[in-house]
## 1
Amino acid sequence: MKCSFCDREAVYFRKYEGHYYCKGHFVKNIEKKVRRTINRNKLIEDGDRVAIALSGGKDSSNTLFIINKLFKDHPKVEFFALTLDEGIKGYRDKCVKKSKVLCKELGVEQFIFSFKKEFGFTIDELAERLETGFCGACGLLRRYLLNKKARELGATKLATGHNLDDECQSIIMNFLKGDFLRLARVGPMPHLAKHPRFVVRIKPLIQVPEEESILYNKIRKIPSCPKKCPYSFDNPLRGKTREFLKSLEETSPGIRYSLYESALKLASLVKEEFKSEKIKSCKECGEPSSREICKVCEFLKSIKS
Ligand code: SF4
Ligand code: ZN
């Protein structure tokens, strides 16, 4: 089949749109989409110093690659890569290696921090001690450390690699769990409560579906790690939600975009509910928290006892 925009061979059919894309038109379209997300939502502006959370996986690698493409010659925007090593043998070590290759290739400064050094244990060690809950703990510790390190490195924004599927999965899961505060955080720049220690999060890839992120990565030959975390079984709800979304998209192309748009509308109403919510500072570590003692300090205490 030919590309809908030129005479070249098509490599992708975008079912929800009805267009065929050759390699060249496909990558241009993805980059345009990301640029539009950034510009329309003012995700990156003059004076920003952006920390890009680079795990070494395809989404975060694509995020770094595109931000580098768009802003490498910008005189008023700085960016760097921020990589966390949770200590998962056979997985994260390989991803960290790939992330180093990418940063070297692009000439982007990279900072790497390990759970072992920062918290005193690896996720492998935690998984040996806990029967379950280590995946949730890993996510909690990662969000905490990313925010802390981004701030300490002078970042004004923290870019993550969340794609459209990740966002849609979170929307469904938060709805199922009745977590309306999290539901209100949907969107490319979800900053609800203000706190001097909070670095504003941005999601430049939020309009890019999973399969398009994979294809973009492949066509652009961006170094990244294709491996799946061996502990993802510890979060079965996400796995099931992913499958559910996939089957919905097969029968109703474009459903992910309409779910996302609906959630954005809902979020603007829900946000009102939480407008007066104050974010405190954790009494132990000083980081932002909705409680007296933050979840991370509580968790760290619980595993010591
Ligand atoms: Fe950590 Fe869970 Fe992600 Fe694995 S899947 S890296 S354990 S949050
Ligand atoms: Zn704390």
## 2
Amino acid sequence: APPFPTCRVSSMLLRHPSASLIDLRARGLGGRAAHRVIVPRVSTPARAGAGATGADGLHPDIRTTLFSEEQLRDAVSRLGREIGNDYSGKSMLLVGVLKGCYMFHADLARAITPEPAVFEIDFLKASSYLPGALETSGKVNIAEGFDMSNVAGKHVLVVEDIIDSGLTLTAITELLRTEGRAASVKVVTLLDKRARRKVVFDADYVGFDCPDEFVVGYGIDYSERFRFLPYIGTPTQVAIDRIAAEYKAMREVDETFAFQSDDPTD
Ligand code: IMP
Ligand code: MG
């Protein structure tokens, strides 16, 4: 199975695999900070938003569509009505788990009806303690920047793109309950891969049951690619292999720069 991208440093992905040190020096740039500004050559031919489709309506790197735009829209409005009814009259905080949730969160917020008595949104980013791990370790840490003091007494609904092992959400919901002292904590996930659970975890609201396949689109990525697709599908093996090779090349560039850096704090 292709590696999950949950534990990667995203700034690393902005580096051009073929950018050489000589190129950078020629531009008067040096050290680690410099190569962050280089625009990557993106092999995915789609930078045209929803126009990311071939003649058959599918992106060339996508093998099959699992959930179409229309199916996603229907699921989001069904969830919006269900959630709206359940949170009617309550003080609600809709907390997205970045980055995969971003499209779903934005669409869901617009679909929740009727409007809760108080309706706030926030986002958090969860990170694993294990560097370089390909799946979540379960030792999840909420990244700095999330305002845990804003959680107390509120009815928190955590918005997730896809539940796999269940480890990430087990940890996040536990933190929101104990540290955050939320009035309640529930979870809505767009996709649920029940077959892959490592711990017992049930979401309160589910868009779709998802087959045990690696999926991308509608916010969900493979190595930061494909988030922009308006539907959810499975990437081709050719695309997975190509992107994995590009990622590996970028890491090699990264190591070169780490060695060259003269900033000890970098
Ligand atoms: P878990 O439930 O702790 O294993 O973590 C779920 C996270 O793994 C999701 O939020 C995604 O970031 C990632 N993930 C799981 N399955 C997929 C997939 O099919 N495609 C892309 N990311 C996935
Ligand atoms: Mg996620």
